[in-house]
Amino acid sequence: MLDYNMPLWRPPSEGNNLIIQATLGCSFNRCSYCDMYRTKEYVARPLDDVFADIDQAAQAWPQAHRVFLADGDALVRETDDLLAILSHLRARLPDLQRVTSYALPANLINKSVDELTRLREAGLTLLYYGVESGSDEILKRITKGATQDVMVEGLEKARAAGMKISATVILGLGGVGRSDAHIDGTAELINRFAPNYLSTLQLGLVPSRRADFIARFERHGGTFEEQDDAGMLAEQTRLIELLAPSRPVIFRSNHASNSLPLAGVLPKDKAPLLEVLALARTGMVQLRTPQQRGL
Fold first, then answer.
1. Which of 72, 69, 95 is nearest to 83 (CA)?
2. DSSP string across 118-129
3. Worst-scoring range by mean pLDDT, 108-117, 162-171, 235-244, 284-293?
């Protein structure tokens, strides 16, 4: 339908929705574990080009009711630009119900609550936010560009604006040696903020990122030893044991990288989730084979 600038990435839940590229690439693009936009230079696309894509999509798919704004960093655009894009979407798609985008820590820090509120009122109602880890040590080792306090500050601004947050955590980011620090800090962050949705995925380093990831991790001391499936399940267990959010959090581990799909609402479903994990750790529940997984 549209001539996308590839590669094109989107959250799994946006697979059946219309994707409009408001930006290309990622303005940060330094996270050591991420390979998504290494072949692209960041650019905010001209508004006329974005409008033309919306017009073309509306002709081919006039009943589209959900839109994801790509690439990895649409929210870095000036607020007036985003408001113009949202207005054009509403004008061309009469059934539009929801617009979403990724959000980086810097995006939320650099926008005011008023700006975020205006964007939410214009239709941008849910943000996909990569927490990855809540440990300041791990965040430094993976070049995330933020601390736990910075992330919570930005996320609270989004909540004050009425936006929903779908957060992701990457199991295995601390390796074997710093697993507890990674999970304990992550649980602390989630308990401080309690996003609407929380998903976990398992670290899977593509060959082009492996050496750089390990070198940057070990630059701060120690060595990095990758977790196996048993270690990932132990981390998932520890995370769920420690989570005590003040508001209900819809939890999923259904990303294709996970060895064990899980679903529930925390803290209500903590006990049954831990029961399934215990069975999986003793071999009573079958894990996905490596051939059944992907990034």
1. 69
2. HHHHTTEEEEEE
3. 284-293
